[in-house]
Amino acid sequence: MKQKRRDRDPKTYARLTHPLVREVPGDRASPFRTATWDEALTLAADGFRGAREEHGPDSFAMLSCARATNEMNFVAQKFTRVVMGTNNVDSCNRTCHAPSVAGLSAVFGSGGGTSSYEEVEHTDLIVMWGSNARFAHPIFFQHVLKGIRNGARMYAVDPRRTSTAEWAESWLGLNVGTDIPLAHAVAREIIAADLHNKAFVERATTGFEEFKALVEPWTLSLAEKVTGVPAAAVRDLAHAYARAERAQLCWTLGITEHHNGTDNVRALINLSLLTGHVGRYGAGVQPLRGQNNVQGGGDMGAIPNRLPGFQDILDDGHRLKFEQAWQTVIPPRYGMTLTDMFEAMEHGRLHAVYCIGENPAQSEADSEQAARRLAALDHLVVQDIFLTKTAQMADVVLPATAAWAETDGTTTNSERRVQRVRAALTPPGEAREDIDILCDVASRLGHDWKYADAEAVWNELRSLSPDHFGMTYDRLTRLQGLQWPCPDVDELPPSYLHGRLWDADEARRGRLAPFGLVEHDPPVDLTDEAYPIRLTTGRRLDSYNTGVQSGSFASPLRRGEYVELCPEDAERYGVVVGEEVRVSSRRGVVTAPVWVDPGLRPGLAFMTMHFPDEVDTNLLTIEANCPIAGTAEFKASAIRIEKLTASELRG
Ligand SMILES: Nc1nc2c(c(=O)[nH]1)N[C@H]1C(S)=C(S)[C@@H](COP(=O)(O)OP(=O)(O)OC[C@H]3O[C@@H](n4cnc5c(=O)[nH]c(N)nc54)[C@H](O)[C@@H]3O)O[C@H]1N2
Ligand SMILES: Nc1nc2c(c(=O)[nH]1)N[C@H]1C(S)=C(S)[C@@H](COP(=O)(O)OP(=O)(O)OC[C@H]3O[C@@H](n4cnc5c(=O)[nH]c(N)nc54)[C@H](O)[C@@H]3O)O[C@H]1N2
Ligand SMILES: [Mo]
Residues 182, 173: contact at Cβ < 8 Å? Predict the structure, then answer.
């Protein structure tokens, strides 16, 4: 079908080149004017000092940038803990893969994906579960394609028949939010067919008998009723996964962006425990992380519960090590997650925010509520490379260099590989490196940190994080990156984690992997007569997140925002491609043109988060959060679609 494009011109962004402050200090309704660096840095620091003195250290929070380098994230969390005296530091990891980290940590003691990209080339079965890697992880998907070429079979589990699913041998098109029933039915079938790996279950896991009883009711026919996936397809996946010599189970936001995201993750990990598809070359579980350095940001301690090197803040020994190194006292309690921060804003408990390279005014679920909460802060400093919607709300805007091609340092991808990045381009105007800006704000608050370069920051991290100690800049350069854990400067780390589970003695000495006893819990935002359509949101190949970076240039590849429906629904609502319609949820209303996608099913609509200046999809989404990880249910809202009246159409 030839579809007519009817794009609204997407907004384009220009790079920030100079610090900005308000004409009338303290009045965010007054316009911005350019300022000298000295003036802007002093204003930024004064506001943070004021909040700390008046309301205490926990009235401050840092949002750290998952696109910037490890070194920058290290300094940002150090600023939060040492200069401001709080553990309130987090990033977009919270909106994204926090459930993966929580689920993997609970089972294996470490939040990283267990395998290397290369291993999917040498595996027998690849399951892409709630992941559109063809669009969102194109580099990883190249490895998947090589695996398929080498003879691997691929299964895709996604409510939409995505571009990724087009490559699969079998597509399981489940109803949104029914992943636990599907996973439980797969597990039950594996056990019923006596295909589980009894030796592995016995040696390496706990809780099997309880798990077996838990999944017992999830017969193939019950699963078909709840998930919408034909029983034969569920059975086929169960047998293929269990019989494969080696299988890779990969998931992303289709699993995590739910009000029970961590439970979903546990349900998938259960399948790997049942079959022993973990801890061996070619067999593993992989949450493909989102932003280029969201893995590294967490590893560097830019999260509220971990010090650098993923060391638990509640562990006295870990805290003491950092307190001695930094000559400070670290609060012996977890700080606020991004989710907690917005909650605290609502109740006036958060007064000052330092937001580096995040755009929460547009990326948070229920964005109207998020923007209102940000507007109520006493002091908001935004450090970015573009004047985002969040930056437009700030008291002070600090222009940074881009981590990509303008800054030296390292980043860590989702196979835990730390790689060097280098400054190759001259930054625009007066833009300065994130680390230098942070250090200058710190010095105005009484902390003089001297870092000659990014390597000096990295070496401080190495001295405090055993998992990173073996990664010198020299080795990272010569070996084109190294994966953690890398404790030794002479040895190469293994490509996969948890091999110890295969050794009877070692498995017994270490922790065993518990099955997750998780139950089905449908989406919070129920569909009914008033809101009959299930909206799920996500990504397209041509654009990036809130569109700030991908919106900074014109591209013929990029089409604007649409509400996508299946052909039957378009007919049912009497709407055609390109027609503007009203899309309403229980929280907000937007208008958007219609697109027809035969990969959708009746009752299911799709929108992206890429064009919030034209169509603010997050006005529609619900802030129903996973109680363990704090991630919102971006993947399930209830909406209705209405034709516009003639006068509305004339606008
Ligand atoms: N081109 C591009 N690439 C990107 C990004 C970008 O904006 N653009 N963003 C990056 C970031 S930050 C991230 S986190 C990743 C995200 O990467 P992905 O998670 O792969 O991307 P999404 O499109 O958000 O969601 C993945 C799939 O989940 C499916 N899904 C929705 N609901 C459910 C459900 O209930 N169950 C299951 N099983 N599946 C469901 C959707 O149909 C969708 O195809 O991409 C990264 N890469
Ligand atoms: N409806 C819906 N909403 C979602 C999602 C969804 O699937 N559906 N997904 C969620 C997910 S997974 C994520 S990760 C979030 C993303 O949410 P955000 O992280 O808030 O959004 P981005 O657009 O990625 O913003 C990145 C910002 O970093 C800036 N930046 C880039 N490089 C640098 C640098 O080197 N230094 C500095 N200082 N700044 C830099 C960019 O200019 C940009 O403003 O959105 C979430 N929101
Ligand atoms: Mo993300």
Answer: no
- The pTM for the full model equals 0.97
Residue from 538, 517, 524, 527 nearest 625 by CA: 524
Cis amide bond preceding 428, omega within 30: no
Predicted local confidence at residue 1, as pLDDT: 44
Gap between the Cα atoms of 309 and 302, Å rounded:
10
Atom 12 of ligand 2 has which residue's CA nearest to it? 96
Find the helix or strand (DSSP H, E) in which 457 lies: helix 454-464
What beta strand segments (E) does 132-177 contain? 153-157, 170-172
Report the separation in Å between the CA atom of 291 and the middle of ligand 2, taken as the mean of its atom positions.
8
- Which of 16, 93, 609 best tests ligand 2's pocket when mutated (most atoms within 8 Å of CB)? 609
Question: 17: helix, coil or strand?
Answer: coil
**404 Cβ below 6 A of ligand 1:** no
CB 122 within 8 A of CB 282: yes
CA distance 396 to 4: 43
pLDDT score at 5: 56
Low-confidence ranges of the chain (pLDDT < 70): 1-10, 651
CA of residue 508 to ligand 2 center, whole Å: 42
Task: Give me 629's structure tokens.
Answer: 């990880």
First to last CA, the chain: 29
The whole-number pLDDT of residue 10 equals 64
Residue 85, SS3 per DSSP:
coil
Question: What pLDDT, on a 0 to 100 scale, did the predictor assign at position 9?
Answer: 63
Atom of ligand 2 nearest to the CA of 407: 35
Vertex 47: Cα angle to 44 and 52 (nearest 5): 130
Number of neighbouring beta carbons within 10 Å of residue 528: 9
**Phi/psi at 247 (nearest 5 deg)?**
-135, 145
Ligand 2 nearest-atom number relative to CA 537: 8
C-alpha distances (whole Å) from 281 to each of 149, 164, 502 are 19, 24, 12
Structure tokens at 567: 């052909």
The pLDDT, as a whole number, for residue 399 is 98
| Residue 565 parent element (H or E) | strand 563-565
